[in-house]
């Protein structure tokens, strides 16, 4: 009778599959009973600083369920899951163990910020598949990073020699950071609509995958772990959602230019792109310096890469020329369309204003991008399966 009373009566706040749906505000939240019990158990673990295998397994299951209302929060379950996996591999599940300090910090974040936010209610607009508000294009190589968005904001950052050496084995992570900064720049501009939805395009399949997966191992790739958590923090604070999609390298012409060419001033590069690729960029396209807050974080992240220089052994490197298919590790292209990138140092010495990149001029370029996005939504969504 209790279930019938809660779920069978007409109400503006029905309980559906264990979730409260506010049909007036269009929000989803956990019921008060669950929040009280789950938060009490979470607080008990934080205070005692230790737990059993079964209790930790149960706690992770609850937090993973809570993150259904905001999948981005699952990025903060990585270190907690790692403890459970190590515990399971040791085959000693009966003892009670103390949790690492970093894991306790993540649990405190869930207790102080995430669970209260889910209890207040998450907008259904942030977990519903819908048309993107802003589309961003980004690219990176061992010499620099760059990107732009459909609002017209563009940026580029040249890497110093020591930073370039440190990032040669971190190119996939560099691509991820480039996508992060492009989205962050859009949020920083404060020109977004409320509860905006981003579509991040990149020609690196690893970066595209990391944008919506949370299996980043801090012990194996600390810079990537640091970037992923920052990325989620930026989106959560702005109440935005994001989808990612792969873009073939030969179509990512403008972002390729921004990440590889630094011999012109921002104004000259802006004029060159507007005249050479008018159908690929909005009329308001303009290259500007990164805001101090974003530039400071990027400098700190690059310093982290330099500290770990030489530790990566399994990560492949990407050649500095424009990619053909967007795979994570590419061989040098033999296509004549990328001839301008085969000897990168010579680009700086050239004074010619002729196009350095192949024109990918199609009047329906942006329409084609949106069509690919709509086709992707007809498939089984990776975020849920």
List keywords for this structure.
2 domains, 12 strands, alpha/beta, single chain, 6-stranded mixed beta sheet, globular, 385 residues, 13% strand
SSE inventory with pairings:
Blueprint lengths: L1 H6 L7 E2 L2 E4 L4 E3 L2 H17 L1 E3 H14 L11 H13 L5 E3 L2 H20 L1 E2 L10 E8 L2 E6 L3 E6 L2 H7 L3 H18 L8 E6 L2 H6 L11 H17 L2 E6 L6 H8 L5 H11 L9 E2 L4 H16 L36 H6 L15 H13 L8
Parallel strand pairs: 7-10, 9-12, 10-11
Antiparallel strand pairs: 1-2, 2-3, 3-6, 4-5, 7-8, 8-9
What does this structure look like?
Strand 2 (19-22) and strand 3 form a beta hairpin. The chain folds into two domains: 11-126, no CATH class; 134-376, no CATH class. Helices cover 45% and strands 13% of the residues. The strands form three sheets. It has a six-stranded mixed β-sheet, sandwiched between helices. It has a four-stranded antiparallel β-sheet with strand order 1-2-3-6. The radius of gyration is 23 Å and the shape is globular. The chain has helices spanning 2-7, 32-48, 53-66, 78-90, 101-120, 161-167, 171-188, 205-210, 222-238, 253-260, 266-276, 292-307, 344-349, 365-377; strands at 15-16, 19-22, 27-29, 50-52, 96-98, 122-123, 134-141, 144-149, 153-158, 197-202, 241-246, 286-287. It has 385 residues and is an alpha/beta fold. It has 14 helices and twelve strands. Helix 3 runs antiparallel to helix 4 (78-90) and helix 9 (222-238) packs antiparallel against helix 12.
């Amino acid at each position: 009778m209790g279930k019938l009373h809660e779920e069978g009566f007409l109400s503006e706040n029905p309980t559906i599959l264990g979730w409260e749906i506010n049909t007036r505000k269009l929000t989803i939240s956990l019921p008060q009973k669950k929040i009280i019990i789950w938060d009490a158990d979470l607080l008990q673990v934080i205070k005692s600083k230790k737990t059993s295998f079964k209790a930790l397994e149960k706690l992770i299951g609850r937090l993973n369920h809570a993150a259904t209302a905001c999948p981005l929060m699952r990025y903060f379950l990585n270190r907690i899951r790692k403890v459970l996996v190590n515990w399971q591999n040791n085959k000693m599940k009966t003892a009670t163990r103390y949790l690492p300090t970093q894991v306790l910090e993540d649990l405190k974040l869930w207790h102080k910020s995430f669970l209260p936010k889910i209890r207040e209610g998450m907008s259904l607009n942030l977990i519903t598949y819908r048309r993107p508000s802003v589309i961003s294009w980004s690219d990176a190589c061992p010499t620099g990073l760059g990107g732009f968005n459909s609002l017209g904001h563009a940026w580029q950052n040249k890497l110093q020699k020591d930073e370039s050496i440190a990032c040669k084995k971190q190119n996939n992570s560099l691509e991820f950071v480039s996508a992060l900064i492009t989205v962050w720049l859009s949020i920083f501009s404060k020109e977004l609509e409320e509860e905006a939805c981003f579509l991040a395009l990149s020609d690196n399949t690893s970066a595209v995958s990391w944008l919506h997966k949370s299996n980043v191992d801090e012990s194996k790739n600390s810079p990537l772990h640091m970037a992923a958590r920052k990325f989620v923090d930026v989106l959560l604070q702005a109440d935005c959602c994001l989808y990612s999609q792969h873009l073939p390298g030969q179509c990512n012409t403008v972002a390729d230019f921004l990440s590889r060419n630094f011999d012109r001033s921002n104004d000259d590069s802006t004029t060159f792109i507007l005249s050479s690729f008018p159908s690929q960029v909005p009329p308001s396209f303009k290259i500007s310096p990164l805001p101090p807050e974003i530039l400071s974080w990027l400098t700190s992240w690059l310093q982290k890469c330099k500290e770990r220089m030489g530790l990566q052994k399994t990560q492949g490197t990407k050649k500095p020329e424009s990619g053909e298919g967007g795979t994570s590790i590419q061989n040098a292209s033999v296509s004549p369309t990328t001839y301008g990138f085969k000897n990168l140092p010579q680009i700086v010495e050239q004074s010619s204003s002729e196009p350095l990149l192949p024109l990918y001029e199609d009047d329906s370029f942006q329409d084609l991008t949106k069509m690919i996005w709509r086709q992707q939504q007809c498939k089984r969504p990776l975020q849920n399966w």
